[in-house]
Amino acid sequence: MLKKLLSPLGRIFGLFAILLSLSISGNSLYAQTTNAEISGVILDVKGSPIPGATIKNQKTSKVAISDGNGRYKIAAAKGETLVVTFIGYAPKTVVLENQTQLNFSLAEESDKTLNEVVVVGYGTQKRSDVTGSVVSVPKARLSQLPVTNVLQSIEGAVAGVNVTTTSSVPGSQPNALIRGQNSITASSGPYVVVDGVPLSKTGGSLNDINPNDIASVEVLKDASATAIYGTNGSNGVILITTKRGTSGKPVIRYSGYAGIDNLAHILEPRSGAEYVQKYADFLKQTNQTQTKPVPNNGELAAYNAGTTTDWIAESTQQGKIQDHNLSISGGSPDVKYFISGDYLDQKGVIKGYQFNRVSLRSNLDINVTSFLTVGTSLFLTSNKFDGGRANLLLASAMSPYGQEYNPNGSYKIFPMEPELLYTNPLLGLNTTQISRTTNINGNGYAEIKFPGVLTGLKYRFNAGYTYFPERRGSYVGRLANDLNGTASSFNASTNSYTIENILTYSKDIEKHHFDFTALYSSQERKYNSTTAGAVGFINDELGLDNIGAGATQTSGSYRDRYGLNSQMGRLFYSYDSRYLLTLTARRDGSSVFGSNTTKYGVFPSAAIGWNITNESFMKSIKAINNLKLRLSYGKTGNEAVDVYKTITTEGSVRFPFNGISTIGVIPNNLGNSSLLWETTKTANIGLDFGILNNRISGTIEAYQNKTSGLLLKRSLPIITGYGNVLGNIGKTTNKGLELTLNTQNFTGKDFRWETMVVFATNKNKITDLYGDGKDDLGNTWFLGKPISVIYDYKMTGIWQTGEDASKQDPTAKPGSLKFADLNGDGKITGDGDRMILGQTAPKWTGGLTNTFHYKNVNLSIFIQTAQGMTKNNQDLTYGDETGRRNTPAEIGYWTPENQSQTRPALSYNNTLGYGYASDASYTRIKDVTLSYVFSQNLLDKLHLGSLTVYASGRNLHTFTNWVGWDPENNYSSRGSGDWTNNYPLTRTFVLGLNVSLR
């Protein structure tokens, strides 16, 4: 185990050393000086010690942290400057004389949060000046949670951002939705920007960004904040800023954790005895004569021997996860650097699933002259998902008396032979599966500050390039039930560049403050792919390594290009820090739109803010520390159209002509040369507040989005040769309320307790479809109703023995599902007896975080909830297979004896296709983290700058009425989806360590 761990770490440290030598070679470091030891205590104005305060020697950049009693020690000499800081308190600066003992008293700073700088897109602003809806993700969730994707840190922690984990496959990315769904079929995911350069639409994903490298995450939600991204802003924007170097001696940091994964909830199949009873009940209910105790002869041997197989246990394993991150940062006043390397390895809880990520990052900033600064942000991420996988769907269907192995030790293909419907769930482990991606990303900038009369004017040039190759390959042979052997290979690459010219001007004239930003940018993405496949191999020896050995060959290739040109202007004005105004307009031209259009659109927005607490009449109201009202209105776009969908194309097909295989063409896509983007108009009102020395602070916001020109497919008569065509038709509205509340419940000498509450409601509806005032029943789109609903029969129970079903459902028998006859015609049909049973999106979401501090011990408990959503339950829908497969013990069935009112008889065939709509609401103990920060006295002895150890648990328990694996999981039934994503929620426990060297 140690050898396996050290090997990847060795590679990381080796690459890390190379990057370090390249980045800091030639840079002069601070000379060592002989310093005296200064000690003392950090107190508040009441005389209580402040643990965790930072004491920094500005000359040497040495840093010390006060212990649980507020005490500190730091090396410093006469004439050097010590700066003491702590969140919520005004900093204090002292120039040393001949002291060796020095105490500090810090006063609370009520407007500390208001002076924080936040990223707003193409620049930064003080929080007190922000007029749009911009939310910063709490720093604690970015630095203190062991997550593989930053979206896992955001989940439940930001009001209005709904992050769902539909599958826990290692390396998979959660889905994120900001302020609900505006579009019906177009993409609704947020636009992601990293260090000012788009990550979205470059082929990569947030999986490529190491969470340890992230310094801050801002979420832009309203039109005032997102309109600067034009056609990409309608679904919100996530801005990520990575860590950068600071002046001072090098600081080396290591953070790592290791832990275990288990399935959070197991939907246990029936035991041997329960399986035998189910089969007997099935035969009885279907009026068949039972001749043997089990359905198949292949099960008899194990039944007679009294041996059973736990197929869930055979298909799963102890999951493991480890992550190791090493970084170094520092520099001189003119050259600053941050370099990091990270190795993540995850072994899934289902056999064969795994994820391996190696990432390297180098951020560099150089002050070339007093007016010119240049810098780079470089990263490389390699993701590896290789390996054949066990099939959890088949594992849950296997008979406990099925045979797992052949006499020679190989997997038996049909464990329940002669049953051929279900194969061994472990056959995937005998296949060759390759899935790898690499993200090579290089961004650079140059910034010029103009002097003299042009002071305040800056020009910045950004350039970013991304190369994203990906490779997938598969070989399935005899041991996996493919007697011919089938191989496939896929190789693709995405090349993207972004060029931005940004001009900013800042000016103060007495009480007037102006900030102007202008942008001209260009983006391009080129994608190409090749595929190869073959069937018919004489053996399985070479497989994927020699596709040319297959008897029947297939191949293909594809290429496309996407381009975007943009201009943007933004003006911010404030008067006396009381009255705020932001005006923004962006003009985008996208290559994906039709030739009959200009391809350009303008997206304006306006916002005003009023810092009420800065008014003279508020000075006497000491209890209110912050009160700001914000109003905004604007327009954004959604260009979610695939490349070349606005032009008519034809596809190739091979067909016989005169006995010869000939290539021909068939209709493929009917283009719409007048197609444009979806347009969303957003109104937002927000109130930021802080009272009682900011012990209670937060934000209340309400918004309404109106989207028009939806990108929908209009059905066409099949005689045209095309089934549909994209058009700008339909409208939706989307509104909601959001609340964020932070409270300091108790602030004592040794004990502190803080709480954060987030709450959000969202309601969308379709207001128009095709302009004819009619619903689209086939797609279950209804005017005046939510975009995504469950439309089905209304189940009222189970028909029991002796009940007369003839007047309501003549086809029903005892044990059949009982449905409401909504139109009263005496029969159950799809024409008039279906109704909207619920919506698939939650009606409201919330999160509750309680953080407790006792001296050096910290405990954080985060609870997440999503309420009011309905989903069809695949775990309850087994069609007519109940007589041939095992079923979960948790899911019962009707018999004349138990007279169930929720589950049908085994003989029921569900001919109406009822989806078993179920309440998918849940409340989850999402994560609990216990940490210990070591005292400075001990760190001095160990020659360390900081040391924190922690234990963390995620997905500890879920409170729900859902019957199945998990209400958040999208579970596919046989033949209805991708079984490889049938990977339920996992529970994780880790131990972690964060340490820095001084």
From TrEMBL:
State the GO CC annotations. Answer: cell outer membrane
Source organism, top-level taxon: Bacteria
Q: What InterPro entries does the database record attribute to this sequence?
A: Beta-barrel_TonB_sf, CarboxyPept-like_regulatory, Plug_dom, Plug_dom_sf, TonB-dep_OMP_SusC/RagA, TonB-dep_OMP_SusC/RagA_CS, TonB-dep_rcpt-like
Domain TonB-dependent receptor plug: residue ranges = 127-237
Looking at the keywords, is Transmembrane present?
yes
| UniProt entry keywords in alphabetical sequence | Cell outer membrane, Membrane, Signal, Transmembrane, Transmembrane beta strand, Transport
Extent of the signal sequence: none
Localization of this protein: Cell outer membrane
* Membrane topology, record value: Multi-pass membrane protein
Please give the SUPFAM superfamilies that the UniProt record associates with this protein: Carboxypeptidase regulatory domain-like, Porins
Q: Name one GO biological process term.
A: siderophore transmembrane transport
Q: Is the Cell membrane keyword given for this protein?
A: no
Q: Name one GO molecular function term.
A: siderophore uptake transmembrane transporter activity
Q: Which residues form a coiled coil?
A: none
Could you say which protein family the record assigns here? Belongs to the TonB-dependent receptor family.
NCBIfam families hit by this protein: OMP_RagA_SusC, SusC_RagA_signa
The cross-references to PANTHER family, in alphabetical order and at most eight, read:
HEMOGLOBIN AND HEMOGLOBIN-HAPTOGLOBIN-BINDING PROTEIN 1-RELATED, TONB-DEPENDENT OUTER MEMBRANE RECEPTOR
Its name, as the record gives it, is: SusC/RagA family TonB-linked outer membrane protein
Q: Which organism is it from?
A: Pedobacter petrophilus
